[in-house]
Design a protein that fits this description.
The protein is α/β, with parallel strands linked by helices and 452 residues long. The chain has a domain at 252-416: 3-Layer(aba) Sandwich (Rossmann fold), CATH 3.40.50.2000. The protein has 18 helices and 16 strands. The protein has helices spanning 24-38, 75-78, 87-97, 113-121, 156-166, 171-178, 182-185, 187-191, 201-218, 227-235, 252-256, 284-293, 311-324, 341-346, 363-370, 381-386, 401-416, 430-448, and strands at 9-13, 42-48, 55-59, 62-67, 101-104, 126-130, 143-144, 148-149, 221-224, 243-245, 270-277, 300-307, 330-334, 350-353, 375-378, 393-396. The strands form 3 sheets. An 8-stranded mixed beta sheet has the order 3-4-2-1-5-6-9-10, with helices on both faces. It has a 6-stranded parallel beta sheet with strand order 13-12-11-14-15-16, sandwiched between helices. It has a two-stranded antiparallel sheet with strand order 7-8. Helix 13 links the parallel strand 12 (300-307) and strand 13 (330-334). Helix 4 (113-121) packs parallel to helix 9, helix 5 crosses helix 9 and helix 12 (284-293) runs parallel beside helix 13 (311-324). The protein is globular, with a radius of gyration of 23 Å. The chain starts with 8 loop residues before the first strand and ends with a helix.
Length: 452
């Protein structure tokens, strides 16, 4: 451990990181690292690599360690039955570092229960921030049957049926499979029959549930970034006195970059924008379908900025590109970067966030508010917590392209008529989130007997 004269050493542990992965958790970790450093802590970011080698580098002035994981894992490893391959490399690094605290920001194969268990075995305090629904939802969306918001409580039979439904299994069959005794389900391991693999799902989800509960119990403190997620964790047994809601914040640069918004011009089209990953859960197909349903006389444009990392997102991008063919109002603009961020938001009159899953932020809503831009988004999850309908934007029934079309037509008329008055809320700085973390860390150190 560090000496009394040296700064506390904190390891931030996300499941992915720059430059090979771009997303909200990565951005949050990046901001937190810099703000904690400004508060006097020594920070290291550690994350699983994309290959079976160790990597040491700096990103945005911050030291990053990437530990190896197997790019072709066994089924048992994917199912979490055993520690991931090369786990001993992470263990040796952690033992050598002996940080004062580890703060996990993901629960994945490369950053999960076994890593948390190892942290605690060294006597190192552990904090966990839950950023996404997938921590408690095996389907990853918190949408039961793909369209109904779920209460998030881990129930093996219900969750098994829902996951199997996502794979094309009818609900009643899924519930029946979920109730098959575990000893029969394990026979599927021997037979390797495609149909029988479904029999294992209930056992796998029971195993997953055990690991999630164990990880959250190991944590000295659990942080969530939205109210609905806080309630989900309470339903799953996380005690209130070690659970804190700390919402996202933005960098001082973004908060200071707000420029005057243009006055609506009657003959200029409403410039609608989208910023985010090309992933089905982001609902871009819903938005494009809504645009296509609009009469050609509706004066509106949609500019899409985003990245597709991995084969699944690349396939989705190809699908929505095909969906948008022939629709001149939709333009794919490429990726938003730190260099063009101000220009991107400066080209929007309104931001669209059509997510079909329950967002826990999202950061892009805060970025729009910081730029003085109203938001039209799905009426669920974190979006509904941030956007006040009729004041800072509009909320639309999740996943309904017809409702999106109706709302877009209304908002385009409102723009054309010059009725464009919104009350955009202020956005807190990321430093405030870091101060929340500082209070939590100090409390954890106090309870563990390592306070200074």
């Amino acid at each position: 451990m560090s000496s009394l004269a040296s700064p506390r050493h904190i390891v931030l542990l996300p499941g992915w990181y720059y430059p090979d992965s771009v997303g909200g958790t990565e951005r949050y970790t990046q901001l937190l690292a810099h703000d904690l450093r400004m508060l006097g802590y020594r920070i290291t970011i550690a994350a699983p690599a994309r290959d079976d080698r160790e990597h040491h580098y700096e990103y945005d002035g911050m030291p990053v360690y990437r530990y190896p994981i197997d790019v072709n894992p066994t089924t048992s490893e994917v199912q979490g039955k055993f520690p991931p391959r090369y786990f001993e490399t992470f263990t040796r690094w952690l033992e050598d570092q002996r940080p004062d605290l580890v703060h996990m920001h993901s629960v994945t194969r490369g950053c999960g229960f076994f890593h948390a268990q190892q942290v605690k075995s060294f006597g190192v305090p552990l904090c966990v921030t839950v950023h996404v629904p997938g921590v408690t939802c095996a389907r990853g969306t918190m949408q039961r049957w793909g369209h109904t918001p779920c209460d998030g409580e881990l129930r093996v039979a219900r969750c098994t049926a829902c996951v199997l439904h996502d794979k094309g299994v009818p609900r009643l069959v899924g519930y029946a499979v979920a109730r098959i005794p575990a000893r029969l389900a394990r026979l599927a391991d021997r037979w390797r029959h495609r149909v029988l693999t479904g029999l294992q799902m209930a056992e796998l989800l029971q195993h997953r549930q055990t690991h999630v509960h164990a990880l959250l119990s190991l944590a000295d403190h659990v942080v969530v970034v939205s109210h609905w997620l806080q309630e989900v964790l309470r339903r799953n047994g996380v005690v209130t006195d070690k659970l804190t809601l700390s919402r996202h914040g933005l960098s001082e640069r973004l908060l200071c970059a707000r420029a005057p918004r243009p006055v609506p011009q009657p003959f200029a089209p409403l410039r609608l924008g989208y910023v985010g990953r090309f992933d089905a859960t982001k609902g871009l197909h819903v938005l494009i379908e809504a645009i296509r349903r609009l009469p050609t006389s509706t004066s509106i444009t949609l500019r899409l900025y985003g990245a597709a990392s991995g084969a699944e997102e690349q396939r989705y991008l190809a699908t929505v590109r095909q969906q948008a063919e022939g629709e001149a109002r939709v333009t794919f603009m490429g990726e938003m970067t730190e260099q063009n961020r101000d220009e991107v938001f400066g080209g929007f009159d309104m931001l669209a966030v059509p997510s079909t899953w329950l967002e826990t932020g999202p950061l892009v809503v805060l970025e729009a508010f910081a730029a003085g831009i109203p938001v039209i988004g799905s009426d669920s999850g974190g979006i509904a917590e941030l956007v006040t309908h009729g004041e800072s934007g509009l909320l639309v029934p999740t996943g309904s392209s017809k409702a999106w079309t109706r709302t877009l037509r209304e908002v385009a008329d409102r723009w054309r008529q010059g009725q464009w008055t919104w009350r955009i809320p202020s956005v807190r700085a990321s430093r405030e989130a870091a101060l929340d973390m500082q209070r939590i860390y100090e409390e954890v150190w106090m309870k563990s007997g390592s306070a200074r």
